[in-house]
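Minutes, project huddle
Topic: does the predicted pose make sense with magnesium ion bound?
PN asked that the exact inputs be recorded in the minutes so nobody has to dig through chat later. Recorded below.
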Amino acid sequence: MGGVSYIEVADLSVAYPDPSAANRHLLAIDRLSLSIPKGAFISIVGPNGCGKTTLLLCLAGILKPTSGNVRIAGVAPGKTTCGYVFQNYRESLYPWLTVLDNIALPLWLDGFARAKARQAATELMATLNIELPVDRFPYTLSGGQQQLAALLRAVIHKPAVLLLDEPLGSLDVPSRADLCDAVQRIWQAIGATTVLVTHDLDEAIQVADTVVAFTPRPARVADTVEVPLPRPRSRDILHDPQVVVWRDRVHRAMTGGRDS
Ligand SMILES: Nc1ncnc2c1ncn2[C@@H]1O[C@H](COP(=O)(O)OP(=O)(O)OP(=O)(O)O)[C@@H](O)[C@H]1O
Ligand SMILES: [Mg+2]
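Predicted holo structure (tokens), as shared on screen:
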């Protein structure tokens, strides 16, 4: 990952209290270091439970590291505007607000009048060519529609940092491809330094400048693969022989060198 570092993760370790044994700890991240240039798009892949969400929580300033440091533009996380699509998106939309108000909420909290915030949300959806039943409440939408709403809410205020925790997980294949394109368009439009966690290696490669593969817990960097392909990128790039080699390398890093 070349360029001047914007997000700097230095020797980060996170230990949780072990839920199954009093006075014991469970190490989720072990002395992890990462350096992400401003405006870059990074994908993170790794086995279940290895510490990916834990890292995003530290980048957002929601979780305090046990040791080591996270700095964004030289200051502690939480001081930078940040958009976050949580892995448990179903619990992250406010059930008492309509879909449009959910999407508009970050602007509203920033001091925009409600009508103006709602208008900005409508315009964002029009720009991205996304349709949702915006006057309904989130729990009346399908899982995929809720995920879309959570994604729009995360970017409505054009954050400097965008953290996406499996944001396309419950979408069907065509919707996933559309949204993958939308994520790239959003990223190019707002220029946010973006970290995407995904289990889909194709998706990871298609969107990212760099794919970082984590080891099983505790998370450490198993391998880093640069993807210096031109943009915009469609799914066609996945047939590129280079991409096939990169996918294989990421897969091997995640499985510790095993073939399957
Ligand atoms: N609050 C908590 N208390 C105790 N252990 C926790 C807590 N949160 C996470 N863990 C443990 O820390 C480890 C890393 O969790 P994390 O959610 O970061 O994994 P992940 O890589 O995001 O997994 P997945 O791909 O399944 O989402 C797991 O073993 C998990 O059980
Ligand atoms: Mg997770």
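Observations noted during the meeting:
- The helical segments are 52-60, 99-109, 114-127, 143-155, 173-190, 201-207, 241-254.
- DSSP finds seven helices and nine strands in the chain.
No decisions taken; revisit at the next huddle.
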